[in-house]
Amino acid sequence: MIGCQKSNNLNYIFATGGTSGTYYSFGGSIASIWNANIEGMNVTAQSTGASAENLRLLNRHEADLAFVQNDVMDYAYNGTDIFAGEILTNFSAVLTLYPEIVQIAATKESGIKSIADMKGKRISVGDAGSGVEFNAKQILEAYGLTFDDINK
Questions:
Q1: Burial of 49: CB neighbours in 10 Å, binned 0-12, 13-18, 19+
Q2: Model pTM?
Q3: DSSP letter string over 89-109?
């Protein structure tokens, strides 16, 4: 999902994600295409902490465009979950880029055959503050686990 705020110039900050993630490289590619094909356009892809931070950047007018997971956008708009008590409404959805499918993978040697088997194991849960991290928290909680039960 790309969120945005209204702006009157063609100089834009595009909040993406961490430099090792999909959002950053995808945002850089989109910015390059826009810059090369729209006269006077100047979009700068900015590395960020991803969805939650991107919504806060939009809300503070520190970014003009942003990649955001749609569930995280809903949490911000309604002040729930990772945005409990904090309602952000200074953004608009522009388009959906692709579905964000949750994938869980483990090596055979790890002994992990179910979510419950993750207890006590070293698990990658995504960047702090990212939608991926929050989805990992939700999945673990559905199985009675918390981040305290795993090694991040």
A1: middle
A2: 0.76
A3: ---EEEE------------GG
Rg (CA), the chain: 17
Long-range CB contact pairs, 59-64, < 8 A, 24+: 59/88, 59/89, 59/90, 59/91, 61/5, 61/90, 62/13, 63/5, 63/13, 63/14, 63/15, 64/4, 64/5, 64/7, 64/12, 64/13, 64/14
User: What is the spatial distance between Cα 11 and Cα 118, in angstroms, rounded to a whole number?
Assistant: 45
The first and second tokens of residue 78, run together, are 């309604």
Where helices occur in 49-99 by DSSP H, the ranges are 51-59, 70-78
What confidence tens digit (pLDDT) does each residue in 32-90 have? 999 999 988 999 999 999 899 999 999 999 999 999 988 999 999 999 988 999 999 98
